[in-house]
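For reference, the entry.
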Amino acid sequence: MKATSQRVKAKNFRPLHGKPLFAWILDSLLAVEEIDEVVINTDARHILAENGLVDSDRVRIRDRKPELCGDTVSMNLILADDIAAVEAGTYLMTHATNPMLSTATIRAALDQYKNGVAAGTADSLFTVNKIQTRFYRADGSPVNHDPDNLIQTQDLEPWFEENSNLYIFSRDSFASTNARIGRKPLLYAMDKMEAIDIDTPEDWALAEAVASLRAHTA
């Protein structure tokens, strides 16, 4: 969780529909009983404290090392530092910029990961958006369909977009690739309304709209 951001100023701490952005995902994580501890890797401990968040029995705030700060540092390097410092059987990683990620989805993804590991068919899991639409290259040539045979988009081969909402892995799977996605990952498809990843002002506006809709339908 960074103190600064490039396109949406101080987004991690900006109020979204009544509470700081970071509080949305934190509340969802803490509601999952299977999660023993939430570790926040940050260069903004003082800002978190100003918002009432300090270390507790289930929240550990880790000060990000200076060499790991900056917009171009790979998240896998930050994760490697956390894994070295935090012993765990299973690691679940998400971002403060995923406010709509629900407790139900977190639980379901954990169950799917555990089942895959137990069956020996998976070593990690990441969330995706399932997309079935017509793609083109920059020169206008089709990528995944035949323009002379326009079948319904729902009948096209589905493609899967990594949506940066949730990653689950073990120490061993991380070591095998030096990344949060292992050698045998499961893809967990999410609902589009839940998969918002705030990176731009447009993303923020969409999150505000979804939060307002949820409040009115709750």
The helical segments are 21-30, 45-50, 75-85, 103-119, 171-177, 201-217. The radius of gyration is 19 Å. The first strand starts at residue 15 and ends at 16.
